[in-house]
Amino acid sequence: MDNNQNVGAVVRAVGPIVDVEFDSLMPPLGRALKVEKTGMILEVIEYMNDRVVRCMALSSTDTIAQGLSVIDTQAPLSMPLGPEVLGRVLNAFGQPLDGGPPFKVEEYRAIQRPAPSYDEVDSKLEIYVTGIKTIDFFSPFPKGGKIGLFGGAGVGKTVIITELIHNIVSSIEGLSVFIGVGERTREGHELVEEMRDKDLLKNVSLVYGQMNETPGVRFRAAHAGLTVAEYLRDSMKKDVLLFIDNVFRYAQAGNEISTILGRMPSDTGYQPTLGQEIGQIEERIVSTKHGAITSAQAVYVPADDFTDPAVDAILNKLDASVILSRDLARLRIYPAIDPLRSNSVLVGKKHLTEEHFEAIQLARRTLERNEELKSIISVLGKEELSPEDRQSVDRAERLIKFLTQPFYSSENYTGTKGVFVKLEDTVKGVRKIVLGEVDQIPPEFFYMKGTIEEVEAAWQQKTNSPSR
């Protein structure tokens, strides 16, 4: 041990919380400490008195014992960085999880950093075409912005995130960072293998804080992954795509830490610092003169309750929101995106073509009328509707089925080849449906197709069939 080191000793440990006593200089908040015997990393989060600091353990505390020496590293919790982070799977400390050798480190950056100042931020927004019809049409993905995919368990958030990674990363050949916060190890493993099979891994860095790890690791994994994205943007001058799966688990980890520390919860039941913690992540996801960070985030909605305070706090920080519906998933409408509840800051004449904007208005009116008539249909049947309403309901059914789409990421499960649909093809197809130009085609022909030309070709083939 170096005699010049600032050394303390463990005096108390309860779960992931460890109290350390220092006889001399007290380390500041955010400082990383290391237990000398085990190498365990601690982060200073509170002062207990003028000699004891309360720390959050960033690994299991099974081996901790009273009296163990703790060394002040003289540095905040930092992420090792370099171009070789690309193609690697890392934990919240930058250590490889993929079995590969350590990568060459060019610099260390503190994972808790301030957001860029106002004069550094580039607020220009433009559409990032994802190839997913419902997203591109109803809630366009803003380049340099943040889009959230909201839904309960099992409605397809991770599938859409995986499809976005495939479509955007493979089409633009840019750099990407994937942050796995509190998710299952199996899902992380499947994603890595899929990216390796499709030769996408070389331009992606993955940072994981899995569900079996301490809340401190899950909480800090989001900051660590974001630091990697900032490094690629600032040092390599690249546009970066940032995928987070999922942000709710980040908020949940913060709540666990707050509870362990004995802090009084707010009247919503969450930690009193919920809004601040969400803001610390979201405000750092911006475009600057060096490059853009564009983010797609999966957000778990507990019990499908969209009024949950954590979900609400995240929703308010985003530029576009995609709402996944369990009712649509039950009807096998995939992706199960609710177009009437999904939105984007780009929906307006300033960012969209006149044709696209007009088509959105027509499609929304058709779908809204269909929703209004559902209760009448359930009681009286569709036959009792007026001819105009029957026509509107039929067009809504065609539109809902047209917005289904086979995904590349689910080819192995469905056996159907995935499709990437250009925005102009989606707009053209929706306009034809809502204007009644394809009223003669039965709704089932619209299911799991790409463009409207595919629908028309399938119908043409059917009508030309001798068996008909």
Q: Using only CA atoms, what is the Rg?
A: 25 Å
The overall strand count is 18
- The secondary structure category is alpha/beta
**Strand line-up in the sheet with most strands:** 8-14-13-15-16-12-17-18
Largest sheet entry: 8 strands, mixed
Taken as a percent bin, the fraction of beta residues is: 15-25%
User: What is the oligomeric state here?
Assistant: single chain
Q: Which runs of at least 5 residues are low in confidence (pLDDT < 50)?
A: none
Number of helices: 13
Average pLDDT rating: 91
Q: Given the C-alpha coordinates, what overall shape results? A: elongated
Identify the notable features of this structure and list them briefly.
18 strands; alpha/beta; 6-stranded antiparallel beta barrel; 8-stranded mixed beta sheet; 35% helix; single chain; 468 residues
Structure description:
There is one protein chain. The strands form 4 sheets. Strands 8-14-13-15-16-12-17-18 form an 8-stranded mixed beta sheet, sandwiched between helices. A 6-stranded antiparallel beta barrel has the order 1-2-5-4-3-6. The chain is of the alpha/beta class. The protein contains 13 helices and 18 strands. The mean pLDDT is 91.
Secondary structure layout:
Layout: E1 7-14, E2 17-22, E3 31-35, E4 41-47, E5 52-57, E6 69-76, E7 78-81, E8 89-91, E9 107-110, E10 126-128, H1 133-138, E11 141-143, E12 146-151, H2 157-172, E13 175-181, H3 185-197, E14 204-209, H4 215-234, E15 240-245, H5 247-260, H6 274-282, E16 293-300, H7 309-315, E17 320-323, H8 326-330, E18 343-344, H9 354-380, H10 387-402, H11 411-414, H12 423-434, H13 452-464
Parallel strand pairs: 8-14, 12-16, 12-17, 13-14, 13-15, 15-16
Antiparallel strand pairs: 1-2, 1-6, 2-5, 3-4, 3-6, 4-5, 7-9, 10-11, 17-18
Helix pairs in contact: 4-5, 9-10, 9-12, 10-12
